[in-house]
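Predict structure. Chain length: 146.
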Amino acid sequence: MYLTAERYLGFSDKLAEKVKENLIFSGIPELEHMEIKRLVYEAIYWRKANAIHKWFVDNVQEGKDDCGRYYVSKENLIGLRDLCKRVLQDKDNAQTLLPPETGFFFGGTEIDQYYFDDINHTIESIEKLLAMSFIDDLSFEYHSSW
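Prediction complete.
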């Protein structure tokens, strides 16, 4: 399960020049004639966090669980983070607030320490993204693979 962050690089973007210089310096001179237009970062990685995956399917993917790539807004990220915080504040209602999902390669469906570790990981990761000074220059995408 991946959340990627993509940054478009304009014609005069200094970051594009630095990346290109490093690639050429690293022994890939064939790229010298090409322009770098986008950088794609792995923003968050989860493994078998089925409740988080279900949230993306329900709230971003219009119910389609097809390993496709789906745009995720900053508001989506804030909503997921806030929901995860509610789960930690009201653990007795975790099953209702952010239920686990069964399925192929989805891992366990218990509300246990692994579940809460995924919730904490999600909160911490999203908060790091939201704190970045250039977050508005990024476009986010979620996809899963199994």
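Summary: The beta strands are 2-8, 38-45, 69-72, 138-143.
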